[in-house]
Design goal:
By secondary structure, the protein is an alpha+beta fold. It contains two helices and six strands.
């Protein structure tokens, strides 16, 4: 049936590759608007861009138009896709390339890392469930094997 042993090996490898492609989840980068304020200060809120893929139960990376000091206590407010207010401290702040491909009125030229300051295990569980909800409902496409099947009506 097979002309040469290598043809059979190539066919098996190709079948495995197709199987992996069918089971691979599609990753979609989702970006939302938010705001960062300095904790216990009366200053104005600084607009921020948050990549939802960056949110983890321990912290998040945020793009802002102005720098923040390392160790500074901040409050982060995200209103979409689900509202959440988080408190934390700035772990790092670095200038981001101003020649980015994202065009906007306000250049978000700084990226800060915020480590969440969670008071109790209930807050930790809320942030963890928020991250899981984002992963399930907003970030990843439905794999082919989990898509609902359409049943044909009996004629």
């Amino acid at each position: 049936m097979w002309q040469a042993p290598s043809h059979r090996i190539r066919a098996l490898a190709s079948a495995k590759r197709r199987q992996r492609e069918r089971q691979r989840l599609a990753i979609h980068i989702k970006q939302v608007e938010g705001e960062v304020t300095i904790a216990n200060a009366q200053g104005p809120a600084v607009p921020a861009r948050i990549v939802l893929n960056d949110i983890a139960p321990k912290g998040v990376g945020v793009f802002t138009p102005e720098p923040f000091g390392i160790g500074q206590e901040v409050e982060l407010k995200i209103s979409k896709p689900k509202e959440i207010n988080l408190r934390g401290r700035v772990a790092w702040c670095q200038e981001y390339d101003a020649n980015s491909h994202i065009l906007s009125q306000t250049p978000f030229s700084f990226r800060i890392g915020i480590v969440f300051s969670l008071d109790n295990s209930e807050d930790e569980q809320n942030v963890k469930s928020y991250c899981e909800e984002l992963a399930k409902g907003y970030l990843y496409g439905v794999p082919a094997y989990a898509a609902p099947t359409i049943l044909k009506k009996a004629a």
